[in-house]
Design a protein that fits this description.
Radius of gyration: 16 Å
Largest sheet: 3 strands, antiparallel
Structural class: alpha+beta
InterPro entries: DUF3793
Number of strands: 5
Number of helices: 9
Strand order of the largest sheet: 1-3-2
Protein name: DUF3793 family protein
Strand content: 5-15%
Order of helices and strands: HEHEEHHHHHEEHH
Amino acid sequence: MLEERFISHSAPTLAGLKTANLFTLPFSSRREAVRQLEAWNRELSRKDVYVTALRMKEREALVYVYRKGKLEETLKKEGVMEFLQTYGYEEAGAAGVVDCLKAKFARSDEFPHEVGVFLGYPLEDVKGFIANGGKNCKCVGCWKVYCDECEAKKRFAAFQKCRRVYAALFQQGKTVNQLTVAV
């Protein structure tokens, strides 16, 4: 059940198509959830995929699955760190910004919308979402699009196809580790 949920929500990241995914993971025991996250990290970190809980509540965790290398690339793009600094991110590098993001989730129940950058969404779409309060977008898929609708639709289709393929492979017996591409 946990592995199937992990794969269905994280397939584009596991396949190397996307920087990161975010999903809610229900659990019956906090200790068991921590053990599962640690096990995924042990398995996947060798392939540059990391798993962390951004927030843990009584019966669920908000899980962030990311490719450290892709996140580092995103942070080096023009304007990204400057944008994040306006939201209090002072640390450069994937580990530093992820720690800061976790601290933001720990301090507030509010959802920090700059998280779109951490998921690999185009910076201009993240800015557009924040400026428009989530309204007036051109289209909606994995994120709300404010700029390049054509490119976004191509990416949405690729992510959907990846999810279908990975779901089928999981049904055939493939594990998270077997489905994770080293890039």
